[in-house]
Design brief:
The structure holds 2 protein chains of 2 kinds.
Chain A: H1 3-22, E1 25-26, H2 27-37, H3 49-59, E2 62-68, E3 74-80, H4 82-111
Antiparallel strand pairs in A: 1-3, 2-3
Chain B: H1 2-13, H2 18-40, H3 45-56, H4 59-70, H5 73-91, H6 93-122, E1 134-138, H7 143-152, E2 156-168, E3 175-182, H8 186-190, E4 196-197, E5 212-215, H9 217-224, E6 234-237, E7 240-247, E8 262-265, H10 270-273, E9 290-295, H11 301-317, E10 326-329, H12 339-373, H13 375-383, H14 388-422, H15 436-462, H16 471-514, E11 523-528, H17 538-553, E12 558-564, E13 575-581, E14 591-597, H18 601-605, E15 609-612, E16 625-629, H19 630-636, E17 646-649, E18 655-661, E19 678-682, E20 694-699, H20 703-715, E21 724-728, H21 729-736, H22 738-772, H23 774-782, H24 787-820, H25 832-858, H26 862-868
Parallel strand pairs in B: 3-8, 5-7, 14-19, 16-18
Antiparallel strand pairs in B: 1-9, 1-10, 2-3, 2-9, 4-7, 5-8, 6-7, 11-20, 11-21, 12-20, 13-14, 13-17, 15-18, 16-19, 17-18
Helix pairs in contact in B: 2-3, 5-14, 6-12, 6-14, 6-15, 12-15, 12-16, 12-22, 14-15, 16-22, 16-24, 16-25, 22-25, 23-26, 24-25
Classes of the chains: A alpha+beta, B alpha+beta.
Chain lengths: 112, 869
């Protein structure tokens, strides 16, 4: 799979969605969660999440601050901003549409 | 929108070092969290850490991606390069300063020339809107013609104007006032309204209306300290009270070039405004005014031309004498109107361009040696993995920075040079030389210089083999050495061309000064133009001059004084032109200037009497004695002794020749004949038709030093004195010689810089090659070579470079000088003496650049050197 483009876009969406459902979370937690949700189908380096987090923060969809984890470790927590919440809904919707269309297309191919 | 926000944050990210630490902390915390989880899952501490790291991925490469995202990599690289370049520049201040200075001089000269050309030829005067709608009406040069056009032409707003220097104030406080005498429409045509007050208006032109004046901003600041209360007060202009009604906007110079002090109405002061000092308003002939016009709104030029033609033919039908009229754009035509000046300017621009080239070549040479010097450092960087492009970019950034430094210095140098040059272009005085165009040119030239001179060395340096030994660099040195030697010769050649040009102009100035037999540096000329203030009979003016002469003689600084013609006025003043004859019956011979002087005239000017005697006070009684000059004596009395003979000036009265003076020019005008026939007679208070205009004063020391004291004494001599124009005779001749003086000054300046640059270039190249060859020299000496042999080795190389350069320079100067001929005065373009002098000056300087390194080479200590590598 050509990782770069699709991966960049989907990873961002996955991060946002994760934050939406779980609330404020640190990078490790986000990476962990994404891996679990995908039933370990997505095995990527955890490290790759950080540039994506930085990009989202620069775009203003998430914000970050240092805090303490459940087991009292210092960690940087990310939370969705209002713009991020709007964006995740819009993006999820778009994604649904795209996949629906694609599914139809692919379905057609199978029938024919 | 989100993108822009992200870029802004990234831009600020460049400058914060905080991110880096934050990232490290975050990654550390990530690993800790992961390790904690792994431990909980039952791994050993080592296993837990290993697994966490493995899962995380390549830390450094992720950090790199993160960093790229945090800032803007290209920009960060640039900042790093700039910082590094600044460090390097600071570490070698002398080298950096040398390059910046070289560029400053090379670029500055061009900046000055561009500024001058811009001011004189291209820029439209300040504050004039739609300048292309303003035209000069050629063919309407007097007031009558202006009036008849004004009343008939409807497509144009017309005005007529002329420039005069009048007296402002009276007595001890009088100062000169550069005045434009205009008609009331003048400010409408210019499209300018005063900064304060109102413009001259038609109502001011009504008979009986009080006289009015608009002052220039500059004059108002200088004379009244920018005090607005001067509006509405009365000031004395040309001896008469005028109401100040307005102050023009800053730098407004009227429709022409050159600073102006005031505007008054032509019709209100016709005598003061005319060049003859008489009222010319009703005289239908002559061309003493400039008529200018602005297109009325909505009118095209073609329509205006058609109407002018119709009016002209209507006037001709009424058999009124009318010349055909033409419209020339005031500002577009300026480009052509300076023929001689603009040709000289082109030459100067050429000289400046040469200097620029030379500066580039010099800087290239310096950077080259420096790049070779840095071969080792660059080799290390290449071997550590820096790409050639990175090295090249880094060097280029360094060169551009140095060039920027040079550019700033160039602005200062340009301003200074521009100021020096404008002294010779009176029309550009007070103009703002540093316009936008000049700044653009400076920036463009400075970066061009950096790229021109920096690219080759940077390519060479960045392509040097990644070899840590400096010997590899030496091979490259030899490959480039022929080219560098060639460049050095070119520098010497260019310097010689510039110095030769300076020499030719200087010789012209010398030749021109030699034409006056006067002691130029000891004479002060005080010109007083009474015709511009009030109308007095010549006898009264003569009496005033006598009084002034007596008064000035009593000053301790003054050796003697005389009344005579004002040299700048040519044949004005007490000079008449008669045929001088041996007998009353002689057929009219050549015309000849008869100059009326007081007895001390010859002593004052330092004009030697070749035979016989000068005037004595006893001659004054009968006033028949005359002194003639040598050229007239040889014309009238060839082979005979003229002393005691009679000459006749227009009447049958015998004027006895008492002495023969050496030849000198009758007028300072450069264009006039080299030696004029001259007869001197005594100025007496009877029967002279011309009022004297100048007092000639011989000072005890250098005239320029005594100018102030003399001016003060004269200006305060009478309560109603008009402005006394006091100048040294040298200054007056310099005005006439200004084109050669400018050529000599500018090329002298360029040439000096060029010679210094060439010498530095040679010095640098030889010094560098000696440093490279230290080992070889050491070996030679160890094998028995004497110090002299080593010095000769270096010298012979240097001398060859200089010799080739001189050859090229002589050829170049010879080729160029043929075109220079028409700009010179009585000097052959291929003047051997000038060529020889210039060549020896350049050779001496260049050889000095060889000698110093040669001495260094001879001092090499073989024992030290051989241990060194």
């Amino acid at each position: 799979m050509a990782k770069t483009d699709v991966w960049q876009g989907t990873l961002a969406l996955m991060i946002l969605k994760t934050l939406q459902t779980m609330g404020p979370q640190h990078g490790y937690g986000i990476a962990r969660r994404i891996e679990q949700i995908s039933d370990d189908a997505l095995t990527v380096n955890y490290g790759t999440i950080y540039p994506a987090l930085l990009k989202l923060e620069q775009e203003g969809y998430i914000s970050s601050e240092w805090g303490l984890s459940d087991n009292n470790r210092k960690a940087k927590f990310y939370r969705l901003t209002r713009a991020g919440r709007k964006h995740v809904e819009k993006a999820a919707q778009e994604w649904d549409q795209t996949t629906a269309i694609l599914a139809k297309f692919l379905g057609l191919g199978e029938e024919g | 929108m989100r993108r822009v926000r992200a870029w802004c944050i990234r831009l600020t990210g460049i400058f914060s070092g905080r991110r880096e630490r934050d990232l490290a902390d975050e990654l550390e915390s990530h690993l800790q969290l992961h390790i904690d989880d792994n431990l909980r899952a039952g791994m050993t501490p080592e296993e837990a850490r290993r697994a966490a790291l493995l899962k995380f991925g390549p830390v450094e490469s992720i950090k790199e991606v993160y960093r790229d995202r945090a800032g803007i990599p290209l920009l960060e690289m640039l900042f790093r390069d700039v910082r590094y370049a600044l460090v390097r520049m600071r570490r070698r201040p002398a080298f950096t300063a040398l390059i910046a200075l070289t560029l400053a001089l090379g670029v500055g000269a061009n900046a000055a020339m561009v500024g001058l050309v811009d001011v004189l030829m291209f820029r439209t005067p300040a504050h004039v809107p739609e300048p292309d709608d303003i035209f000069t009406v050629n063919g309407a040069g007097n007031y009558v013609a202006y009036q008849s056009l004004r009343d008939r032409v409807h497509s144009l707003t017309l005005t007529a104007y002329t420039r005069q220097t009048l007296s402002f104030g009276i007595g001890a406080d009088a100062v000169p006032l550069r005045t434009e005498c205009v008609t009331p429409e003048y400010f409408d045509v210019a499209g300018v309204s005063p900064r304060w007050g109102r413009p001259l208006a038609a109502a001011d032109d009504e008979p009986g209306a009080p006289r009015t004046v608009v002052l220039s901003h500059g004059f108002w600041v200088k004379q009244f300290g920018a005090d607005a209360r001067v509006l509405g007060t009365s000031v004395i202009v040309a001896g008469r009270p005028h109401d100040v009604i307005g102050i023009a906007p800053p730098r407004f110079t009227g429709l022409g070039l050159g600073a102006m002090d005031a505007w008054i109405l032509l019709a209100a002061s016709p005598e003061a405004c005319s060049f003859t000092g008489t009222n010319l308003l009703r005289s239908p002939g002559g061309a003493w005014l400039t008529t200018a016009a602005r297109l009325r709104p909505g009118v095209t030029r073609a329509e205006a031309v058609a109407e002018l033609a119709a009016v002209t033919s209507a006037l001709q039908a009424q058999s009124k004498p009318t010349r055909p009229l033409e419209l020339t754009p005031v500002y577009a035509s300026r480009r052509l109107s300076l023929s001689s000046d603009s040709r000289l300017m082109l030459w100067l621009a050429g000289g400046a361009a040469m200097l620029f080239l030379l500066a580039c070549v010099n800087v290239a040479g310096l950077l080259w040696t420096q790049a070779l010097d840095r071969g080792r450092e660059i080799a290390i960087r290449l071997q550590l993995g820096a790409s050639r492009r990175r090295v090249f970019a880094q060097l280029t950034v360094e060169h551009l920075l140095t060039a920027a430094l040079g550019g700033v210095a160039a602005l200062l140098a340009g301003m200074w040079m521009g100021e020096a040059f404008t002294r010779y272009f009176p029309l550009a005085v007070d103009a703002d030389m540093m316009g936008a165009r000049t700044l653009v040119v400076v920036a463009g030239l400075a970066s061009a210089a950096a790229l021109l001179s920096g690219t080759l060395p940077a390519i060479q340096a960045s392509s040097s083999r990644a070899d840590l030994s400096s010997r590899a660099g030496q091979a490259a040195t030899r490959a480039g050495s022929r080219l560098r030697t060639g460049l050095l010769s070119v520098q010497v050649g260019l310097a010689l061309v510039l110095v030769t040009a300076a020499g030719l102009f200087a010789a012209s100035v010398q030749q021109f000064r030699r034409d006056f037999a006067y002691d130029l540096d000891r004479v002060v000329v005080a010109s007083i133009d009474f015709s511009r203030s009030s109308v007095r009979p010549p006898a009264e003016i003569y009496a005033i001059f006598q009084m002034l002469e007596d008064r000035v003689r009593q000053l301790p600084q003054v050796e003697t004084a005389a009344v005579g013609p004002a040299p700048t006025l040519g044949t004005g003043g007490p000079v008449s032109v008669y045929p001088v004859r041996r007998s009353p019956a002689d057929p009219a011979a050549e015309m000849n200037a008869v100059v009326e002087v007081t007895p001390e005239y010859f002593a004052t000017l330092g004009l030697p009497i070749a035979s016989g005697r000068g005037f004595t006070p006893t001659d004054a009684a009968d006033a028949t004695a005359v002194v003639i000059n040598q050229v007239l004596a040889s014309r009238l009395f060839p082979g005979e002794d003229p002393i005691g003979r009679c000459v006749f000036l227009g009447s049958s009265r015998c004027h006895e020749v008492v002495g023969v003076s050496e030849n000198s020019r009758a007028s300072l005008r450069a264009g006039s004949r080299q030696t004029d026939l001259q007869t001197f007679r005594l100025l007496t208070d009877d029967a002279h038709s011309h009022a004297p205009q100048a007092l000639l004063i011989r000072t005890r020391t250098h005239a320029a030093r005594e100018l102030g004291a003399i001016a003060a004494a004269l200006q305060g001599a009478a309560p109603d004195m008009p402005y006394v124009d006091v100048r040294t005779l040298e200054e007056l001749t310099d005005v006439e010689a200004r084109s050669w003086l400018l050529g000599a000054t500018a090329f002298g300046l360029f040439g000096t810089v060029a010679v210094i640059l060439a010498a530095i270039g040679i010095y640098g190249a030889l010094a560098f090659s000696i440093r490279q060859r230290t080992v070889e020299i050491g070996v030679r000496m160890a094998l028995g070579a004497m110090r002299w042999d080593i010095a000769r080795l270096v010298l012979s190389h240097g001398t060859m470079v200089v010799a080739i350069g001189l050859g090229m320079g002589v050829a170049g100067a010879f080729a160029a000088s043929r075109y220079l001929q028409s700009l010179l005065f009585n000097v052959a373009a291929a003047d051997p003496w000038t060529f020889a002098t210039a060549a020896s000056v350049v050779a001496a300087a260049a050889l000095l650049g060889c000698v110093v390194p040669a001495v260094h080479a001879a001092r090499v200590n073989p024992a030290v050197t051989l241990r060194y590598d």
